[in-house]
Design a protein that fits this description.
CATH superfamily of the largest domain in chain B: Sec1/Munc18 (SM) protein, domain 2
Structural class of chain B: alpha/beta
Largest sheet of chain B: 6 strands, mixed
Radius of gyration of chain B: 26 Å
Low-confidence stretches of chain B: none
Largest interface: A-B, 47 and 58 residues
Low-confidence stretches of chain A: 1-47
Number of strands of chain A: 0
Strand order of the largest sheet of chain B: 6-7-14-13-9-8
Shape of chain B: globular
Distance between the termini of chain B: 50 Å
GO molecular function (chain A): SNAP receptor activity; SNARE binding
Number of helices of chain A: 8
Subcellular location (chain A): Golgi apparatus, trans-Golgi network membrane
CATH topology of one domain in chain A: Methane Monooxygenase Hydroxylase, Chain G, domain 1
Largest sheet of chain A: none
Shape of chain A: elongated
Mean pLDDT of chain A: 73
Order of helices and strands of chain A: HHHHHHHH
Keywords (chain A): Coiled coil, Golgi apparatus, Membrane, Plant defense, Protein transport, Transmembrane, Transmembrane helix, Transport
Distance between the termini of chain A: 55 Å
InterPro entries (chain A): SNARE, Syntaxin, Syntaxin/epimorphin_CS, Syntaxin_N, T_SNARE_dom
CATH architecture of one domain in chain A: Up-down Bundle
CATH topology of the largest domain in chain B: Rossmann fold
Oligomer: heterodimer
Pfam family, one (chain A): SNARE
Chain lengths: 299, 568
């Protein structure tokens, strides 16, 4: 990483220096940097140069998205497994699902934060346009992922609810069936014992399901927040902002605007009171220090 | 569908094999070509993170060598000059060049000479040299469209450019379709003959290898006609959705710019009207104004229901459902407001300019007989204060085109009245139109009064009555296409080029109108294609006309002709 950084700086520095450096130290008039550059370019077919630093961030985000996708496939399988009727109480399945869901949600949240902070570009340069477009595309991918996750969760939720209702129905049926069986007292007692055990089980079962649903709803809300934030970046398909020619025109106007803003900012900064204040304070500090030292020396 | 998918396929192939971050560089014409078929979000999917125009990119000095450059340009000498400058100071890592038409050998040599640093990885020709606005409708969007009106001696070099662009465009269409056609043209038009012969030379002699496709049983037919054979269609006011929007507001590359007619919130200033992306538009683009009103009302009602259910959020489940459906809801909202805005604005314009009244007379002039009644109606409208200048001009032109021979005195009266009423009217424009597109200059039977069969048909239609007075006009193109379907397109009117000949009916027909097409004609084409006649029609022109554009072309041509006459 550091090596890459150094190489990148030297390459860029080389390009700058080629323009401004005077050929003092070399007899045949070639600067060292120019030689390096020529060598790099003469390596047969053109080599694609090193990208700026933010590209690393974008690649990281893209790989996060990929990881999240893989995890989501796992989650889908875990959902399917948990919904199948099983003999055990399915605690491990629940925990697995919970763990996966929280992992994915956290991953998405982290990625979204990074996307909005690190990749935001300022200024009217072409590089910032590229950054903006990369940001848009990653935002679209991220949003699609969150929507998929939400859909999966809501279907799982629905199935869970369905199962809960079935369990409740079963309970009611059991309750309903009780008065009918008055014939056999013995059978009655045995039945009621069975019944009690079953009731207890389905109660526990329902409480579990309740908790799960609560958690899923929470994560759904979190995802909703992510989607809201991202929707600013994502392009609405079919509208005017999705047209290439509209974006080209806009770039032209924003570039001019940006230039004006930059010039204005430069002017105000130069006249800025802040710079004045800071200089005055620093001078005062030095004066005080000198006075302090003098005081020590004299006394 | 076929033209749109051909261009999309080309763009896809350009971007597919190149991995990594790309920048797409276009020129002012290819920007339109790509924008109507590919959207920005699709480009982002293909990792194209920057789109630039070639003239603006030459100004910047930023080096972005981590991007690969994909150039898609028309092979003009200007673009080659820009490319040479780019290649001698390359800003990007790699260069992939794609040209939208055939490159000359000299151009290739020039490019190769400038490529000292060997950044060019490939040079290919992808024949997407036309703007496919609708599935069966393409245009070349030529800025100076008026040269077709003038005779060749007036401005030979500009006319040559015009013809070259038209021939290139037609060649690209057939290369994209991978067919080589039999060519016919409109007898009375010199420029149609010239373009037909030049196209034949291109396809059968110069680039015979390129056009040598596998022969099917029936070659397709290329029919080249002149706008002046049917000057009535662009002058009429339209009442079907797409044509009406273009006539009253103006559609350019499937975009409508509303800023010229009033103040709108930021997201409604420019809207997109594309049948590919907007399902409501696709279902309603050929419907008339009354039906559209009803359909929009239905759409608004549906939307209001959805909005009401969205406000009724009580449980967490409802919230979750709302957030799930939010993107859909937003899209629907945008779509509904777009159409409602358009229809409202058009209604306002119809009210202001009293277009219902004017259009009734226009349709009568175009379709029915009765010179005396027509003269009276036109005079009344000319006297009417609220009719705008352009509408008056159109009425007089329509009257003149129909009754130019019948009563010269009354015609003169109308001219004088027009000149006195309209301040901005350029005198002699109507006469200029008559000279160019008068009865003896036209091929085909515009008013259906040349042979007995047509007269009989018209009388029968008159007796039967029409469904809608405002949409009773059928463009001349419709009759031409019907004759092609029946296999009865007359050789006298539309001769073959050279020794081409075709027995029976072709299965694919491309009609190229020099001077421009109208949306009314593309509607006829779509209707015939939908009627399963066994023939697929494609229509294209040098521009897409509305009455403003057509009149502007006439005025410019008249100006040039006049200055030329003065010089001589």
């Amino acid at each position: 990483m550091i090596l890459k950084e150094l190489r990148r700086r030297s390459l860029l520095g080389g390009l700058c220096k080629t323009n401004t450096m005077k050929d003092q130290s070399f007899a045949n008039g070639e600067s060292r940097y120019r030689l390096q550059l020529r060598f790099l370019l003469n390596k047969g077919a053109a080599t694609v140069g090193l990208p700026p630093a933010w590209v690393d961030v974008s690649e990281e985000i893209a790989s996060n998205v990929q990881r999240a996708r893989v995890k989501m496939n796992e989650l889908a399988k875990a959902h399917a497994k948990a919904l199948m009727p099983s003999f055990g109480d399915g605690k491990e399945d629940q925990q697995n699902i919970e763990a996966l869901t929280t992992e994915i949600t956290n991953l998405l949240k982290k990625t979204e934060k990074k996307l909005l902070q690190k990749l935001s570009a300022a200024g009217p340069s072409e590089d910032s346009n590229v950054r903006k477009n990369v940001q848009r595309q990653l935002a679209t991918d991220l949003q699609n992922l969150s929507m998929e996750l939400r859909k999966k969760q809501s279907t799982y939720l629905k199935c869970l609810r369905q199962q809960m209702e079935d369990a409740a129905d079963l309970e009611m049926n059991l309750n309903g069936n009780r008065p009918k069986e008055e014939d056999d007292d013995l059978d009655d007692m045995i039945f009621s014992e069975h019944q009690m055990a079953r009731l207890k089980q389905s109660e526990v079962y329902t409480v579990e399901r309740e908790r799960e649903i609560q958690q899923i709803v929470e994560s759904v809300n979190e995802l909703a927040q992510i989607m809201k934030d991202l929707s600013v970046l994502v392009i609405d398909q079919g509208t005017i902002v999705d047209r290439i020619d509209y974006n080209i025109q806009n770039v032209a106007t924003t570039v001019e605007e940006g230039l004006k803003q930059l010039q204005k900012a430069e002017r105000t900064q130069k006249q800025g009171g802040m710079v004045m204040c800071a200089t005055v304070l620093v001078i005062m500090c030095f004066v005080m220090l000198v006075l302090l030292i003098l005081k020590e020396i004299i006394f | 569908m076929v033209l749109v998918s051909a261009v999309r396929d080309y763009v896809y192939r350009m971007l597919q094999d190149i991995s990594g971050m790309k920048v797409l560089i276009l020129d002012s014409q290819t920007v339109s070509i790509v924008s109507v078929v590919y959207s920005q979000s699709e480009l982002l999917q293909k990792e194209v993170f920057l789109v630039e125009l070639i003239d603006s990119i030459s100004k910047s000095k930023e080096s972005m060598s981590h991007l690969k450059a994909v150039y898609f340009l028309r092979p003009t000498s200007e673009n080659i000059q820009y490319m040479r400058r780019q290649l001698s100071n390359p800003r990007f890592g790699e260069c992939h060049l794609f040209f939208s038409n055939m490159l000359k050998d000299t151009q290739i040599h020039l490019l190769a000479d400038s490529d000292e640093q060997e950044v060019v990885q490939q040079v290919q020709e992808f024949y997407a040299d036309f703007i496919s606005v609708d599935p069966y409708h393409f245009t070349l969007n030529m800025p100076s469209n008026h040269y077709y009106i003038l005779p060749a001696v007036v401005d030979p070099s500009n006319l040559q450019h015009f013809c070259d662009r038209a021939v290139d465009g037609i060649g690209a269409v057939f290369l994209a379709l991978k067919r080589r056609p039999i060519i016919r043209y409109s007898r009375a038009s010199d420029i149609a003959k010239r373009i037909a012969h030049e196209t034949a030379k291109l396809m059968y002699q110069q680039e015979i290898g390129l056009f040598d496709f596998r022969r099917m049983e029936m070659s397709p037919l290329l029919l080249i006609v002149d706008r002046r054979d049917d000057p009535v269609t662009p002058l009429l006011n339209q009442w079907t959705y797409q044509a009406m929007v273009h006539e009253l507001i103006g559609i350019q590359d499937n975009k409508v710019d509303l800023r010229s007619i009033g103040k709108f919130p930021k997201d409604q200033q420019e809207v997109v009207l594309s049948s590919e992306q907007d399902a409501f538009f696709k279902a309603n683009m050929y419907e008339n104004f009354g039906d559209i009103g009803m359909n929009i009302k239905r759409m608004v009602d549906d939307f209001q229901q959805v909005a009401k259910s969205n406000q009724n959020i009580q449980t967490i489940e409802d919230m979750a459902k709302f957030v799930d459906n939010y993107p859909e809801y937003r899209k629907m909202h945008g779509n509904v407001s777009k159409h409602v805005t358009l229809v409202t604005e058009m209604s306002k314009i119809v009210e202001e300019r009293k277009l219902m009244l004017v259009s009734e007379t226009e349709q009568d002039l175009a379709c029915n007989g009765g010179q005396v009644a027509a003269f009276e109606a036109v005079t009344n409208l000319l006297n009417n204060e609220s009719v705008s200048d352009i509408d008056r001009l159109r009425l007089v032109m329509l009257y003149a085109l129909r009754y130019e021979k019948e009563s010269p005195v009354q015609l003169m009266q109308l001219f004088n009245k027009l000149a006195s009423r309209s301040a901005k009217y350029k005198p002699g424009l109507v006469q200029f139109l008559l000279k160019q597109a008068g009865a003896d200059k036209r091929t085909g039977d515009l008013y259906g009064n040349r042979d007995f069969l047509n007269i009989a048909r018209n009388m029968a239609r008159g007796l039967k009555g029409v469904e809608n007075v405002y949409t009773q006009h059928q463009p001349l193109l419709f009759q031409t296409m019907e004759s092609i379907i029946k296999g009865r397109l007359r050789d006298v009117d539309y001769p073959y080029v050279g020794n081409h000949f075709q027995q029976g009916r072709p299965q694919e027909v491309v009609i190229f109108i020099i001077g421009g097409t109208t949306y009314e004609e593309s509607r006829s084409v779509a209707q015939l294609n939908a009627s399963n006649s066994g023939i697929r029609f494609i229509i294209g022109g040098t521009a897409v006309l509305n009455s403003k554009r057509f009149l502007k072309d006439l005025e410019e041509a008249q100006g040039i002709a006049r200055s030329n006459a003065n010089v001589v």
